[in-house]
Amino acid sequence: MNAPVETSAAEAQAAIAEEFAFFGDWTERYQYLIDLGRQLPPFPDERKTEENRVHGCQSMVWLIPSGNASRMHFDAASDSAIVSGLIALVLRVYSDRSAREIVETEPAFIQEIGLAKHLSPTRSNGLAAMLAKLKAYAAEALAAK
């Protein structure tokens, strides 16, 4: 199943909230997250470098930006199934958007789908670190404009 391409980060967040509303409990939601993570594009091992690593995550997470302020793309991967699912959600909201939209978009979907309550503190910290790094890349692109 291919996710629809939403035209804005806000639309992506609304669609994510709608999808998660279908699931009755967190066992099903975690399974859905794992399935989303499995759909991430392949991430070459040679790109899993210290330079691309997101620090602050308990699992290994790598994030690589490309593009410029008008449209930024992110590739990311993790060695954890659930974290890969979180990456899939984050990329859906933030990748292939303008740097300005990335910087201005708050990750409301995390609260809306109940993730904030169901992630361990280390995963929450890791998610926050990944979002901070992604937004920092976008801010750098804006500054370089």
What is the strand and helix layout of this fold?
Blueprint: H1 9-21, H2 26-38, E1 61-68, E2 71-78, H3 81-94, H4 99-104, H5 109-112, H6 115-118, H7 121-144
Antiparallel strand pairs: 1-2
Helix pairs in contact: 1-3, 2-3, 3-7
Polypeptide structure, described:
It is a single chain. The chain is built from seven helices and two strands, in the order H-H-E-E-H-H-H-H-H. The relative contact order is 0.19. The radius of gyration is 14 Å and the shape is globular. The mean pLDDT is 92. The chain has a two-stranded antiparallel sheet with strand order 1-2. It has one domain (9-144): Sufe protein. Chain: A (Alpha-Beta Complex). Strand 1 and strand 2 (71-78) form a beta hairpin. Helix 3 packs parallel to helix 7 (121-144). The chain is mainly α.
List keywords for this structure.
7 helices, two-stranded antiparallel ribbon, Sufe protein. Chain: A, 2 strands, mainly alpha, 145 residues
Short account of what is shown:
The chain has 145 residues and is mainly alpha-helical. It has 7 helices and 2 strands, in the order ααββααααα.
